[in-house]
């Protein structure tokens, strides 16, 4: 069916749903959602609540149509039926104990979250300092450290690439790390 749902009669729409016509189901779904979202938002809900309620209601309508539990009575019966189910489901949510008993975060939780944020900020600052210090190292040190730490090459491989002894490569790596530490500590 290449028709838009507003051009279909209610019985054609019901038949399309029974046949699982993907285009019709998608159009029915997307065209009716804004009304439900508006209802939920006006009545203490969020977009997430609206999506949950609408999903459940849409599946309920789809199931009722498939099981012949719904017969259209007028030109907008299916859309009205979907809206009514959404409204009833949202009313149930509003009446539920879990919705009414939303508790604020306790002060211990807030302290933990703030401590984590502070810790993350410090880690970010340390990383930025280290990366800035790394960028300011001389090219031979940058290359040696990058090869060892980022490319994960062994000192043996590095010594072959640089055409030096393995012990020399180890000493250079140590001196470069000391230089990096000194630059980081000096910039604090």
TrEMBL record:
Q: Which GO terms describe its molecular function?
A: DNA binding; sigma factor activity
Q: Which GO terms describe its biological process?
A: DNA-templated transcription initiation
Q: Which residues cross the membrane?
A: none
The protein's UniProt keywords, in alphabetical order, are: DNA-binding, Sigma factor, Transcription, Transcription regulation
Domain of life the protein comes from: Bacteria
Q: Per its UniProt record, what Pfam families does this chain match?
A: Sigma70_r2, Sigma70_r4
InterPro entries membership = RNA_pol_sigma-70-like (IPR039425), RNA_pol_sigma-70_dom (IPR014284), RNA_pol_sigma70_r2 (IPR007627), RNA_pol_sigma70_r4 (IPR007630), RNA_pol_sigma_r2 (IPR013325), RNA_pol_sigma_r3/r4-like (IPR013324), WH-like_DNA-bd_sf (IPR036388)
This protein's record includes keyword Ribonucleoprotein: no
Record Gene3D superfamilies: 1.10.1740.10, Winged helix-like DNA-binding domain superfamily/Winged helix DNA-binding domain
**RNA polymerase sigma-70 region domain spans which residues?**
28-98, 142-182
What the record says about family reads: Belongs to the sigma-70 factor family. ECF subfamily.
Protein name as annotated = Sigma-70 family RNA polymerase sigma factor
- Say which species the protein is native to: Hyunsoonleella pacifica
User: Which lineage do the record's taxonomy fields give for this organism?
Assistant: Bacteria, Pseudomonadati, Bacteroidota, Flavobacteriia, Flavobacteriales
